[in-house]
Design brief:
- By secondary structure, the chain is an alpha+beta fold.
- A hairpin with a 7-residue loop joins strand 7 and strand 8.
- The chain contains 28 helices and 9 strands.
Length: 811
């Protein structure tokens, strides 16, 4: 608990924490540290000690099973290969409630109400059946890096009576409670049910590595996009392996425990620079829906496909850096215009079928979102050298595909698919593609994305609907508008010639060799522009090579014209796309600059508002302090800061007495045992204090009386905000004579104590301690009897008269 509290009130990992304070929590803790006071490490340790007191008092240990890991974070196994587990402490329950950045910020009072309702509905605050509550606090320390206003809730899982709190299915319960709080307060808290699961987090080390290498995105996002494109474009597991290597990504299998013929998972990596090590990422670490079992749900399960996949996996695992496909398939063939039209019709049929699927069928909609995300990822792989609108569209739709494994089912065989669209988009930059068919496929994908948006609106998830609208229908529209218009690309087909058998064999061999070269080139392609340029240069060289005299001058001339026409078509495709990409980057840069300027203006305005509010708050506090000082000066010209501070201390003591009496309101055997145990502990502490002398205690008491006026006013205002009351001026005036008498009694007692010998001082301390113990026991019995007599009545805490306080102070 101390480690968690120290982090929450600390500066954070990058000093992002500001104005760390409590907004809600246990009444006894809020009485001391509430009121908006900024917390430091000492206060954090005090709060942690108070939260952990029931666990230490009753000696209860809360543990859970955890996997044993070595220094590098790898799970340890025994001699049989089983994963080793151990019991670790688990007495702290921690969660955060966060708002979307567009929701703005809430006041401390509203966050306090939300945190109190959340803890109560989670079952941590006790109930009317007699179950004791847990101690908890809610910490607020500013907004996150992404501008999300949030709070942290820390709960001790040992209740006030020593029993353990139930945390079974706490994730599902917290999701349900979050949804209820959203509806009641008109907010959008993160992580609610009926909404997709969150994306995989990115470690600071991965971000620093990408920034150090000058990359705009981390390797995990780039790999996720490559895996989505290959998975959706493939019709089988073997084709998926080949397409991954075709995109230039390293891939290797993960075999089942104790087996070398059963593939249970996979990992992927980018080809490292010379001298760097390969960093592997498991499919499940990239996204929940990219594990191998989840990918297999989208492919047909047949014996022959399993055999082909096993062969490709074995080859890829033997040497990932130099993998060559065992049996190349459909990924090497460029689509024909008829295939483009067929895939566009498949997308339209899929959209038509989804109209009859209810919004509550999460599996069907997640499957569609996954395929549409893969199609946009494929288009991004071939069109964008750096992540742009297409990559953002893919990530936006992928968020709707993140479900748990048990919530998804295999894709029906008769179900239309977007796999064909992804396959043809992977060839979108190759020469010979008809631009009108490309736009047709893309428009069908945009319509499918619009259907996903409508589904989220029908399901009540306005946040996801706005996200898809902003990403797909605004940013993507600029890309589709900049694409080449239909009919602007013309391709000159090679003339039909009659070749001899020898010439035809030579041409076929040359085409086969060129196909292998193109495959190898695609394996290591890094982007759309580089791929087109290399293809154009290679076609020109091949055209010159054929024209050098083989197979015959006449045939060579015709083939030369055809190859040069193909190279010209590739250049014609690349130029408008490159210009469109350049224009898009310029627009994005202008938009980012404008947004940054708007954000800066908003930050300056917010700082001015906060500064103005702080000035008025200081003025108000100073006015209150001046009024109280004036009243006190009018009543007693001689200032008595010690007396005022002692009065505040007694007000706080009354507050603690009320809280303690409320906890003693259950006359059960367990409560009696607890009282007896507390008395025994008090006696032991008193004896230890008597042995060490009480001079230090008296000195601290006198020192506490010299607390400044500002500190006294701060504590009194804290009590006012916490309990809704403040000792009036008249009460303070009535208390001042008693305070003077108490100060006189304390001074006299100190003088008498100083005249005693050391052994007499010890005897007097023992007597005073025993008297204090007897008085505490009498008060406990009186409170117990009072509770028994007034069990069914309205409870009113007993008070202590001034005379009793005087006598106690003299003792």
């Amino acid at each position: 608990m101390s480690g968690l509290m120290s982090y929450l009130v600390g500066g954070g990992k990058t000093n992002e924490h500001t104005e760390q304070h409590l907004v809600a929590g246990d009444p006894s803790i809020m009485a001391i540290h509430g009121g908006g006071a900024v917390l430091d490490r000492a206060a954090a340790l005090e709060i942690a000690k108070s939260l952990d007191r029931p666990r230490k008092f009753f000696g209860v240990e809360v543990t859970r099973l955890a996997v044993q890991k070595d220094a590098e974070g790898v799970a340890q196994r025994d001699s049989s290969g089983a994963i080793l587990k151990e019991r670790v402490p688990a007495d702290v329950w921690h969660c955060s409630l966060s708002l979307a950045a567009e929701e703005g910020q809430l006041s401390d009072e509203k966050w306090g109400r939300i945190a109190t309702d959340f803890v109560d509905r989670m079952g941590f605050a006790g109930d009317e059946s007699g179950r004791a509550g847990c101690r908890w606090v809610a910490v607020r320390h500013g907004v996150s890096k992404n501008g999300n206003d949030h709070i942290h809730i820390a709960v001790s899982l040992v209740r006030e009576d020593g029993t353990k709190a139930l945390v079974h299915r706490d994730f599902d319960r917290s999701q349900q409670v979050s949804l209820e709080l959203e509806r009641e307060h008109g907010l959008q808290l993160s992580n609610q049910p009926n909404r997709e699961l969150g994306e995989r987090g990115i470690t600071p080390g991965a971000r620093e590595s990408a920034s150090r290498r000058g990359q705009v995105e981390v390797d995990a996002h780039r790999l996720e996009r490559a895996v989505r494109a290959a998975a959706v474009a493939s019709v089988g597991e073997a084709e998926f392996v080949r397409r991954m290597r075709q995109s230039g990504v390293l891939i290797r299998p993960r075999y089942a425990d104790g087996r070398d013929d059963v593939i249970a998972g996979y990992s992927v990596a980018l080809r490292p620079d010379k001298g760097d090590t390969v960093v592997w990422h498991g499919g499940g670490k990239l996204a929940r829906d990219l594990t191998l079992p989840e990918l297999r749900k989208g492919w047909p399960d047949r014996p022959e496909t399993a055999t082909d996949a096993a062969a490709e996996w074995r080859t890829a695992g033997a040497n990932p850096n130099h993998y060559q496909p065992v049996k190349p398939g459909r990924e090497t063939a460029a689509p024909t215009p008829e295939m483009w039209q067929q895939y566009a019709r498949d997308l339209a049929r899929l959209q038509e079928q989804m109209r009859g699927v209810p919004a509550g069928d999460r599996d069907a909609w997640a499957r569609v979102a996954k395929e549409a995300s893969g199609a946009f990822a494929a288009w991004s792989q071939r069109m964008e050298t750096t992540p742009g609108p297409l990559a953002e569209a893919s990530r936006s739709l992928a968020r709707s595909a993140h479900l748990r494994a048990y919530e998804t089912k295999p894709r029906p065989v008769s179900w239309p698919s977007a796999a064909g669209g992804a396959a043809v988009l992977l060839h979108a930059t190759q020469a010979g593609k008809p631009a009108q068919e490309v736009l047709l496929v893309l428009r069908e994908l945009e319509k499918l994305s619009r259907a996903l948006r409508d589904m989220h609106q029908a399901a009540g998830d306005a946040r996801r609907a706005r996200d898809i609208t902003a990403t797909i229908h605004e940013r993507l529209r600029t890309v589709t508008q900049q694409s080449p218009a239909a009919g602007t690309i013309t391709v000159t087909a090679p003339p039909a010639v009659q070749l001899t058998a020898k010439q035809q064999a030579f041409v076929d061999a040359w085409r086969q060799e060129r196909t292998k070269q193109l495959i190898q080139m695609n394996y290591h392609a890094d982007g759309c522009r580089e791929t087109l340029q290399r293809a154009a240069r290679r076609d020109e060289r091949n055209a010159e090579w054929v024209a050098s005299g083989r197979p015959s001058p006449a045939d060579a001339a015709r083939h030369t014209d055809a190859l040069r026409a193909e190279a010209a078509a590739a250049k014609a495709v690349w130029k408008p796309l490159d210009q469109a990409h350049t224009n898009n980057l310029a627009r994005l840069e202008q938009s980012a600059t404008a947004k940054a300027q708007a954000d800066a203006a908003a930050i300056i305005a917010a700082e001015e508002r906060v500064s103005t509010a702080g000035v008025f708050a200081k003025r108000s506090a100073r006015a209150d302090l001046a009024a109280i000082r004036a009243e006190r000066q009018a009543a007693h010209p001689t200032p008595l800061p010690e007396g005022r501070h002692q009065l505040e201390q007694w007000v706080y003591a009354d507050t603690q007495h009320i809280v303690q009496a409320a906890r003693n309101n259950e006359p059960t055997e367990l409560q009696r045992a607890r009282l007896a145990k507390e008395q025994a502990a008090a006696e032991a502490a008193a004896a230890a204090k008597a042995e060490s002398g009480i001079r230090t205690s008296w000195t601290q008491t006198v020192e506490q009386m010299s607390v400044s006026d500002h500190e006294t006013m701060r504590r009194i205002h804290h009590n006012q905000r916490t309990y809704g009351r403040l000792p009036p001026i008249e009460s303070a005036r009535q208390e001042l004579p008693h305070l003077e008498q108490r100060i006189h009694n304390a001074t006299a007692a100190m003088a008498r104590f100083d005249t005693l010998q050391p052994e007499q001082q010890l005897t007097a301390a023992v007597k005073a301690t025993k008297a204090e113990q007897e008085r505490a026991q009498a008060n406990a019995r009186a409170a117990h009897e009072y509770t028994e007599q007034n069990r069914d009545r309205h409870w009113t805490p007993p008070t202590q008269s001034n005379q009793e306080r005087d006598r106690g102070y003299e003792r």
